[in-house]
Amino acid sequence: MASWSRLVRFVDSTGRETLGEPILPDDQELEDWLASDERWTVELQGSSSPVGPLTRGEKIQVKELRPVVRQSDVPIIRCIGLNYMKHVQEAGRKPPPYPSVFIKPNTCVAGFNEDVPIPQIAQDGTVDYEGELAIVIGKVGRNITKESALGHIAGYCASNDVSARAWQRDPEKAGVVPQWCFSKGFDKFAPLGPVLVSPSLLGNASNLHLRTLVNGEERQNTSTNDLIFDVETIVSFCSQGTTLEAGTVILTGTPSGVAMGMKPPKYLNDGDVVEVLISGLGSVRNKMVFE
Ligand SMILES: *[C@@H]1O[C@H](CO)[C@@H](O)[C@H](O)[C@H]1NC(C)=O
Ligand SMILES: *[C@@H]1O[C@H](CO)[C@@H](O)[C@H](O)[C@H]1NC(C)=O
Ligand SMILES: *[C@@H]1O[C@H](CO)[C@@H](O)[C@H](O)[C@H]1NC(C)=O
Q1: How far is the CA of 256 from the centre of ligand 2 (A)?
Q2: If you measure from the C-alpha of residue 145 to the centroid of ligand 3, how many angstroms do you get, rounded to a whole number?
Q3: Residue 21 · residue 60 · CB < 8 Å
Q4: Exposed e or buried b for every residue in 195-205, given b needs 16+ CB within 10 A?
């Protein structure tokens, strides 16, 4: 489907912003390319959207990376809760019979290195991180079968499902039924990026290594093989009776190690830097800034 296997957005030496496919020298890992001073791409022309039709152009050097997926590229973010067995246990719940779905608006999209503003209403000492594998839908679909699910995925990236726990779970704020959309839906509560990687290049999405660091301290460190529902099941389930438009982002759930599950919980403070790293996908690294 796509004309690329990895996709970035960048500014070149003339100040022009464009999409491109990273050119990795032999044996170089994506993480090393991202950290390098000299990064080359094949320019991809024809659209400014990561899910638009793109054709290959010239070899161009990167001056600075920009977020590959922007708010204007994303109609909606669908999210899966309680999708890693050890996280279900730390949250004191039972695994759901079907994927547990909630929604973040596209105003949650943030860049891979952008500050995340924590609004006053959520400055109650319960802000949490959730490192997650994100799916970006490349081809519109409805009632997608598991067998054809990968054909609807443009690529994967790293993400963080930033969460305000008291608004999610504290009966004083959420009532007796937890509410997910408000507590996880504040502006820029879903950093994405910095690279999209196609399913054909990435391979089995249930075999990735995910780590989350808070100010450099490791909090999450798991294989995605602890996923209860794999990416094919998630795409198929989310599309039942529901049109998944191109650009839709699906966050696939977080593994164990969130602040809420620690004894005592180590929630996020003003100025904390959260980095979510996934093998083969690079990392999102965002500072939490109380506004
Ligand atoms: C979606 O699937 C249901 C049954 O699973 C079927 O009744 C319906 O016609 C399908 N809709 C489309 C658009 O394929
Ligand atoms: C993180 O997980 C990897 C792979 O399971 C393991 O080798 C490593 O020791 C873990 N790191 C820590 C700090 O436990
Ligand atoms: C993907 O990896 C998971 C976990 O290692 C494994 O259970 C599954 O069989 C693999 N799927 C394929 C298609 O290889």
Answers
A1: 14
A2: 18
A3: no
A4: bbbbbeebeeb
| Number of residues that this document lists for the chain | 291
Distance 268 CA to ligand 3 centre (A): 34
Convert the pLDDT of each residue in 20-55 to its tens digit. 999 999 889 999 999 999 999 999 999 999 999 999
Q: Which ligand is nearest to the CA of 140?
A: 1
Q: Which residue has the least CA distance to atom 11 on ligand 3?
A: 204
Residue 18 pLDDT level (bands cut at 50, 70, 90): very high
Residues 6+ away with beta carbon under 8 Å from 276: 129, 131, 132, 158, 159, 160, 191, 210, 211, 212, 220, 283, 284, 285
